[in-house]
Specification:
The complex is a heterodimer of chains A (316) and B (799). Chain A contains six helices and twelve strands. Chain A starts with 17 loop residues before the first helix and ends with a helix. With 316 residues, chain A is of the alpha+beta class. In chain A, the strands form three sheets. A five-stranded mixed beta sheet of chain A has the order 3-2-1-5-8, with no helix packed on it. In chain A, 36% of the residues lie in helices and 21% in strands. The termini of chain B are far apart. Classes of the chains: A alpha+beta (316), B mainly alpha (799). At the A-B interface, α1, α2, β7 and β9 of A face α4, α10, α11 and α12 of B.
Chain lengths: 316, 799
């Protein structure tokens, strides 16, 4: 519905980065081997079932044959298979998915992803840019994502780009992302984190390097004071007690930073599209869209709500 | 085929009088008969299976379409948490060890009851109370909602202000007590009560599986208990085990939880292996291929299972080198599993299989186990695990294992032993139909989960958006869930109908090889009129010389040597007793007062439980009970593991920080505590001498030794309690993680000293021969423990 058609799926087998790609190939090889194993055992069971009536009584072949089968297949073949899998996966493939202890020479950009109940906050160290639920990275560039938590354990995962990494309080974890081509990739929180774990998705926009630079410059700039009626509603109403808009007096950090909210495509952890009508609905009734989330339903209506939405829409 | 001459009718009726249970409800309340306790376990766990199954149906109904709202997020979270806890702790473990183990193990080894019949009853009543306790929490809208693995900090007070976390922690401790009692009992039963001649190389593979699972439970449960104690203290007392800001760690929870949680998975399925190895010979009329390999593999699965826990933590950011180690250990556990699979398959291929319902379920089990096992093997590939971790792929994998590999054999066993339990034959055709419906249903239910997992669907989400490509798979899964439910209803409907209308069953309808088929169906209260003598692992198939031991003089049972089962002394077994349910009730009051934070009442309940235990043991057993120190050995093993977890926690927290103790807390004294621990250690000498004197009948010497030990113990304890209180005034237990583990570890050690003193005092007043060795051993354990604990607490200065 919402994002159908923009390629925002979470298919592990539709990789768009080297890490995810290696894992996908590994999967197909494992699938082949394991299917063969399952088919073999199933064939044995079916054979036993089919032959059940043709067997004469009192036949009990020597233990020797049984031992040979068990030791050959159960130990010999299994050990060979396991060692192969272990070496391929845990010595070679792992190099593409693990994050080097020191940021590798190829790393061009570091971003920070902070899990909150229930949204992701992204910031770009060295710049004032802060966004929520939508991460922009340059395509074809190694990006180091420092994964942190502000409260409980979350897990940062962009299935089509690379493996996941838990966000654990007090712990500095990191994962590398690399997008083969520009595009939009869907990410999600993959560690159960309470009531709205289901609505803690995010989007990764892999932009061309030029578009990314432009985007980052725009996000780094503060909002311009407008003295519009909507801005007054924001500053005097309950909004400013939880949200920040850089460049204005609002600087609370309970909820997401809204400095450039109008530049986002979705709201509430990729739950609804960011249109003026949906934004208004989110303000007045987020509790029915995402029950239990930290933002209360705001009792605003009529002109005030329209003014507030109009103001927020200016925050590109 | 073994032939045993039946004793004369007078002797049989004397046996009947000796072993008969009390009539009516009172009989069930006070029973110590392992068969009755097994049946109580069976029905109770079935009720919980119904509850857990209903929860599963609610989940599948909620997920049938995207953006559904049959359940809101708060309800869904409680329901999936309860589903996991119920199926694991209140269905599969008690069904396999409590129901199957209890009912069948004594029959299979030719015993008349479990080693500790009253403790057996206690384990059931504790189990029942813990289940009711948890469900009272759920019914009062205080159900746990932090998933069955209860990760902190989500389950700490800050993020879960309801009582859900407390019900979680306390019910798992409570339930763990029941499981520990059952497993200790099964271990001692299998080691000491085997019929004469049933040496280890003749013990049925079924028993090897239950022995492995019982040892697994005994050593795994303490880690969960320790974890839940820390969680309860963090939530209610204000300690900081899981509080990062004050030196705690959330990975501490995960390490302890999975140290329990992964062996747990093998504990769930190893009894199922045992059931499979009991059914396959009966329905193929051939001995299982490579009996020694199978028996060893059953033990190895559980043993290796203790070294793989961190493969649940591959995405927590622990160093790659540790990941690789745990991946290699995980690879190793595949081998014993493969050995068993190929043994079962070889037996089926080379035997004369009769595919009646039990064997159909076993064939289905092999398919499901290999399916789930092969996808489990994929988690050895760390990068792949890191992709699919916590997605529906993992859900599919472990449901293939837990439903397919643990529950299918339970269903197989229900059909297989149905004639033995009821004396009736079940109806074959509906039985086979129930298998095919369940087989189709579970595959339709679980197989699409692999695919949605690969499509990135996370587990534990109460709803999902459309347009992710997940919709049809979820609809199919829900259809599979309903199909499975129908199959299960057919299965139980058939069993009920067969109970009412089935044809009478003979003693051994399947021509099976093991001893439970040598006695009547259903078995008499005394199990065997003549205690069997065993000469083979397949006693009913192979010739055996005549057994003659009737033991109709009392409520008696022979004891055998642990390894080669040479006949030892004859012991008197305890009769029915009302104390086990009373003690369980006291413990239920204890846990209820803890959840309500009424600590004074809780203290009262502890004292009350102690008094009940004294009443329980008031009457001395009639004859020699010197083998009973085996029971104490189990207690010590379990306690040592628990305290080992506490000590490991201390080092885990200590090694994460440079300064220890943290600034502002005085360094612990070294010399005085070590000297005192040394003085305490010396009391092992009089305890040892006292035990010897009691056994030799030298009463006055024993009293003198015990009194000497008790005086020194009391002096030590009094000083330590005084010192403990003084220290609490210097720095509070709620100060930080250091103070939390410091006081908990030291306090737990003092509690052990106190229990040791009470046991010594009890021994002094009763001079009970059978208890002397056990209590002396407990005291030696307490001494070693105290030295280790004091050593750990003072070793912070060593850098």
């Amino acid at each position: 519905m919402l994002l159908a058609g923009c390629g925002s799926q979470t298919d592990i087998l539709h990789p768009a980065g080297p890490g995810a790609s290696d894992v996908a190939s590994l999967w197909w090889w494992m699938l082949g081997g394991c299917s063969f194993g399952l088919a073999f055992v199933t064939a044995l069971l079916v054979a036993a079932y089919v032959r059940r009536r043709s067997m004469g009584p009192g036949r009990e072949p020597g233990e020797r044959a049984g031992w040979i089968v068990i030791l050959t297949l159960g130990v010999g073949v299994m050990v060979a298979g396991l060692v192969t899998l272990f070496v391929v996966a845990d010595i070679f493939v792992i190099r593409g998915t693990e994050t080097p202890a020191a940021a590798a020479a190829g790393t061009k950009l570091t971003v920070r992803a902070v899990g909150h109940l229930w949204y992701w906050e992204f910031d770009y160290p060295g710049t004032p840019a802060v966004t929520a639920d939508e991460l922009h990275i340059p395509a074809r560039t190694t990006v180091l994502v420092q994964v942190r938590s502000a409260d409980v354990i979350h897990s940062f995962w962009v299935p089509e780009l690379n493996r996941k990494m838990d966000a654990i309080p007090g712990q500095d974890n990191a994962v590398e992302l690399y997008a083969d081509h520009p595009g939009v990739f869907r990410g999600e929180c993959n560690q159960y984190c309470g009531l709205q774990h289901a609505h803690m998705g995010f989007l990764v926009f892999a932009d061309t390097p030029a578009a990314f630079r432009q985007w980052l410059a725009r996000q780094s700039a503060p909002a311009r004071a407008t003295a519009s009626p909507g801005e007054r509603v924001f500053m005097q109403g309950p909004c400013s007690s939880c949200h920040a808009i850089r460049g204005t007096p609002a600087n609370a950090h309970v909820g997401p930073d809204l400095t450039h909210i109008a530049s986002r495509t979705t709201l509430g952890g990729v739950t609804i599209p960011n249109t003026p009508a949906e934004l208004a609905r989110w303000i007045t009734s987020s509790q029915s869209i995402k029950p239990g989330n930290q933002m209360p339903n705001v009792a605003l209506g009529g002109a005030k709500l329209r003014e507030l939405v109009a103001y927020l829409e200016t925050l590109k | 085929m073994a032939t045993v001459e039946l004793p004369s009718p007078e002797r049989v009726s004397r046996l009947e009088r000796q072993w008969r249970s009390k009539p009516g409800i009172l009989g069930w309340l006070t029973t110590t008969d392992h068969k009755r306790i097994g049946i109580l376990y069976f029905w109770t766990t079935l009720l919980f299976f119904g509850a857990g199954g209903t929860e599963a149906m609610f989940m599948r109904t909620q997920l049938v379409v995207p953006n559904n709202n049959v359940l809101g997020p708060a309800e869904y979270d409680q329901v999936f948490t309860m589903h996991g806890i119920t199926m694991i702790f209140f269905f599969i473990i008690p069904m396999s060890t409590g129901a199957f183990g209890n009912y069948l193990v004594p029959l299979m080894i030719g015993a008349r009851d479990m080693a500790f019949p009253r403790m057996n009853a206690l384990s059931y009543w504790v189990f029942l109370a813990s289940g009711l306790f948890l469900y009272i929490g759920f019914a009062s809208k205080n159900g746990p909602n932090g998933a069955w693995f209860g990760f902190t900090p989500l389950t700490t007070k800050a993020y879960d202000p309801s009582l859900g976390g407390d019900f979680y922690a306390l019910s798992l401790i409570f339930n763990g007590l029941a499981s520990a009692l059952t497993s200790a009992n099964l271990i001692v039963t299998m080691l000491k009560l085997r019929a004469p001649g049933m040496s280890f190389n003749r013990m049925p593979t079924f028993c090897y599986a239950f022995l492995a699972a019982s040892f697994g439970l005994l050593f795994a449960l303490p880690a969960l208990t320790a974890d839940c104690i820390f969680l309860f203290l963090d939530r209610n007392i204000g300690t900081h085990f899981f509080d990062v800001s004050l030196g705690g760690s959330d990975l501490l929870w995960q390490h302890l939880f999975w140290f329990f949680g992964h062996p747990e998975v093998y504990i769930l399925i190893v009894p199922a292996f045992g059931i499979a190895t009991a059914i396959i010979p009966a329905f193929t009329q051939r001995k299982i291929v490579a009996y020694p390999l199978v028996a060893i593999a059953e033990i190895l699965v559980v043993f290796i299972g203790f070294g793989v826990w961190a493969h649940h933590m591959f995405v927590t950011g622990i160093p790659t080198i540790s990941l690789v180690f745990f991946a290699a250990a995980t690879a190793m556990v595949v081998i014993p599993s493969a050995i068993q699979v190929f043994s079962w398959c070889s037996s089926l291929i080379t035997g004369m299989p009769r595919f009646r319902t039990p064997l159909l379920f076993i064939a289905g089990f092999i398919f499901m186990f290999v399916n789930g096992g092969l996808t489990g093997l994929m988690f050895i590939a760390i990068p792949f695990d890191q992709q699919v971790h916590d997605t529906y792929f993992v859900i599919a994998h472990f449901h293939y294992i837990i439903f397919g590999a643990a529950v299918f054999p339970i269903f197989a066993g229900m059909y297989y032993w149905f004639p033995k339990l009821t004396g009736k034959l079940y109806f074959e055709r509906p039985g086979q139909i129930s298998f095919w419906i369940i087989f189709a249903g579970t595959n339709l239910l679980f197989f699409p989960m692999y695919i949605v997992g690969l499509l990135g669907m996370p587990r534990q989400i109460y709803t999902y958006p459309s347009g992710m490509g997940w919709d049809w798979y979820n609809a199919a899964e829900t259809a599979g869930a309903y199909l499975t439910a129908i199959g299960i209803l057919v299965l139980f409907g058939n069993l009920v109908l067969s109970r009412l209308r089935g044809a009478p069953a003979e003693t051994d309808p399947w021509k099976a090889p093991t001893l439970e088929w040598a006695t009547s169906s259903p078995p008499a209260d005394y199990n065997f009129a003549v205690i069997p003598t065993v000469r083979s692992a397949y006693p009913l198939w192979d010739a055996s010389d005549g057994a003659t031991m009737v033991l109709d003089e009392g409520h008696q049972q022979p004891i055998s040597s642990a390894v080669d089962a040479r006949l030892g002394e004859i012991i008197d077994m305890p009769h029915s007793s009302a104390w086990p349910p009373v003690l369980a009730l006291c413990l239920a009051l204890l846990f209820t007062s803890l959840v309500l934070n009424k600590y004074a009442v809780a203290g009262g309940c502890v004292v009350l439980s102690g008094l009940v235990l004294i009443a329980w043991h008031w009457k001395a057993p009639a004859s020699g009970q010197s083998w009973q120190w085996w029971g104490m050995a189990m207690v010590i093993a379990s306690e040592a593991t628990l305290m080992g977890c506490f000590i490991a926690t201390f080092w885990y927290l200590r090694l994460r920080v440079p300064h220890w103790p943290p600034h502002g807390i005085p360094e612990p004294k070294v010399v005085v505590p070590l000297v005192l621990a040394g003085v305490l250690l010396v009391t092992s000498v009089p305890m040892h001498l006292a035990a010897r004197a009691i056994k030799a009948g030298r009463g006055s010497a024993a009293r003198a030794f015990l009194l000497a030990a008790l005086i020194v113990q009391s002096g030590y304890f009094a000083f330590e309690v005084y010192d403990y209180r003084n220290q609490l005034e210097t720095f509070a237990v709620t100060r930080n993680a250091y103070s939390s583990i410091y006081y908990v570890l030291l306090g737990a050690d003092h509690a052990h000293v106190l229990v040791g003193m009470l046991l010594t005092a009890w021994l002094l007043s009763t001079m009970r021969k059978g208890a002397a060795t056990g209590i002396a051993w407990y005291w030696h354990f307490v001494n070693v423990l105290t030295v280790l604990v004091i050593g750990t607490l003072t070793a912070v200065n060593v850098t």
